[in-house]
Design brief:
alpha/beta; 5-stranded mixed beta sheet; 4-stranded mixed beta sheet; 17 strands; disordered N terminus
């Protein structure tokens, strides 16, 4: 009897211990969950004056970051900068980039609801609105209020206001963003648009004035006559960006900007494509085409082929983005400093007015968002504020003190060997060091001006040349909802133009040119051109009001 009682007592004790261990296990899981999930972080951890990454750097996480550019290949975790960021924040990044079509890849991610933790893409891309409309991304302001109030210390208020939607939320943050006042306060903000000539050929033909139709045509003819071949390859007298399904920026937008064609007249968005100055210069290129100076290469080459030909110095002149030839320019410079491309004044209107070249606007270049698939939006938000802060800008721009730069008279000066590698082999410099904004997703150009050195040759001259011509034109940047009436019309008209532009440039006669142009004007009207212009005017006026710009162009 006593043994039975004792046995029952032991069983009760065992059961009690099992229940106790079970409760302890549940508590332990809860503690682990508290580390894995942001939902229940104690409020006292949030300090608006203390960056979250300093409070939680021991909370190590890995985040997938999708960058919607096939060419982006900079690794994470190998170079000095990325190692420093991970060490300071506890955050490791796994970059994902598309193979093949960028649009197809991103659309597939949206359709399958498999967006990575963080996404970076062009501000103008339709997928930005689509993700927001489908409630697939977090509102950054809500994440900031809940987890990372320090975000408000480093975010630009003007930019925040600009990107805040009608629902009161901001869902993305840009890089390389400028506000109108930046252009008034700084005189070393450059445009990326340049008219480039190969230095040795240009000087050999007498450094002619190429701002007039006559001067331009004579220069092209003379260059082709004196230099029919470049190292056994045929000279391409006139180069351009690739032709796409929207046209060719060299022969439409860039040419219009060089001719200082206005964006607006009498408070309405202006039709720059039928401006008489623009038509006049398109006919100049048509004439050169008739004479055989517009080579087939420029109509069919894609970026890879163009880069190969730039590296050989095959082009005489081109309306081109200066930064797009950086790698090839440096190779030419090492081979022969006289073979590089320099910027000179290009086509001008009949009044000889200065070029009006766009600098980056408040939209910036790309925007970055946090997907609702992200299990640690709190840590993603802390990474955002780290990269946006002055400290983060110093790390991504200059690297680590004593390793990639030294402080001299209070200013970071990059070590000579790294500057030389940056000049000679950018890709290798990115792999080893990651300086000079290899991670550009939150680059703040204005903030980094305090550390920026004068640009180095061979890229210095083309950049400095743009300074007097660069203007803030962000109020004219328009974007249409894909399925809206204006959006559908805009896509159709750009597609039409992409086929018309080569026809205009290759028209056998001026009469053929006029006929093709008239046909284009009639067709685009039927496609809804007036709707596009009306919506463009609305966006322009709304942007000017929001930015406090009351003057016309």
């Amino acid at each position: 009897m006593n043994s039975t009682v004792k046995m029952k007592g032991k069983c009760k004790n065992i059961i009690f211990l099992l229940i106790l261990y079970g409760i302890m296990a549940i508590c332990a899981v809860g503690c682990v969950r508290d580390k894995r999930r942001p939902d229940d972080r104690e409020d006292q951890e949030s300090d608006p004056d203390m960056p979250g990454w300093q409070l939680h750097s021991d909370d190590e996480v890995s985040l997938d970051w999708y960058v919607n550019f096939t060419w982006y290949t900079t690794p994470w975790g190998e170079n000095i900068v990325s190692k420093a960021i991970t060490e300071e924040t506890g955050i490791h990044i796994n970059f994902i980039t598309p193979m093949g079509s960028e649009a197809e890849k991103f659309n597939a991610l949206i359709a399958s609801d498999s967006l990575p933790d963080i996404m970076t893409l062009g501000w103008w891309e339709n997928q930005v609105d689509e993700m927001i409309d489908k409630d697939m991304v977090y509102a950054l302001n809500e994440l900031a209020d809940q987890y990372e109030p320090y975000f408000w210390e480093v975010a630009d208020r003007t930019v925040v206001n600009w990107y805040t939607r009608e629902d009161g939320n901001i869902y993305c943050y840009p890089n390389s963003s400028y506000v109108p006042s930046d252009y008034e306060e700084h005189h070393n903000i450059g445009s990326n648009q340049t008219f480039l000539v190969r230095k040795d050929i240009y000087e050999a033909i007498g450094s002619p004035d190429m701002t007039t139709p006559e001067g331009f045509m004579n220069a092209v003819r003379k260059a082709a006559e004196l230099y029919p071949q470049i190292d056994g390859e045929p000279l391409i007298p006139i180069g351009a960006h690739d032709f796409t399904d929207t046209g060719c920026v060299s022969f439409d937008q860039y040419l219009q900007n060089f001719l200082a064609i206005p964006y607006e007249k009498d408070g309405k968005f202006y039709d720059r494509y039928t401006d008489e100055e623009y038509i006049r210069w398109l006919k100049v290129f048509r004439q050169l085409g008739e004479e055989g100076y517009l080579k087939n290469d420029i109509f069919i080459d894609q970026r890879t082929q163009m880069e190969e030909k730039v590296a050989k110095g095959q082009y005489f002149c081109m309306l081109y983005q200066r930064t797009d030839i950086e790698i090839q320019q440096k190779k030419l410079y090492m081979q022969d400093p006289d073979m590089i491309y320099i910027a000179v004044d290009g086509p001008k209107n009949t009044k000889g007015e200065d070029h009006v070249l766009p600098g980056t606007g408040i939209n910036g270049w790309t925007v970055t968002l946090i997907s609702k698939n992200c299990e640690r939006p709190d840590r993603a938000m802390e990474l955002f504020s780290y990269l946006m802060s002055e400290h983060g800008q110093l790390v991504t721009g200059e690297g680590v003190e004593g390793v990639t730069y030294d402080l001299i008279d209070g200013k970071p000066v990059m070590k000579q060997e790294i500057r030389e590698l940056l000049q000679s082999d950018r890709k290798e410099c990115d792999r080893l060091y990651g300086v000079d904004n290899a991670y550009w997703m939150f680059q703040d150009n204005v903030m980094q001006m305090q550390w920026k050195d004068m640009p180095l040759e061979p890229m210095a001259q083309p950049e400095i040349w743009t300074y007097p011509y660069t203007r803030y034109l962000g109020q004219y940047e328009t974007v249409f909802e894909t399925n809206s009436e204006a959006g559908i019309a805009d896509i159709a008209i750009k597609k039409l133009w992409s086929g018309i532009l080569p026809e205009l440039l290759l028209a056998p006669t001026e009469e053929d040119f006029d006929r093709i142009m008239e046909d284009f004007i009639n067709k685009r009207e039927r496609l809804g051109f007036s709707i596009v212009m009306e919506e463009s005017t609305r966006q322009m006026n709304a942007a000017k009001e929001k930015l406090g710009l009351n003057e016309g162009n």
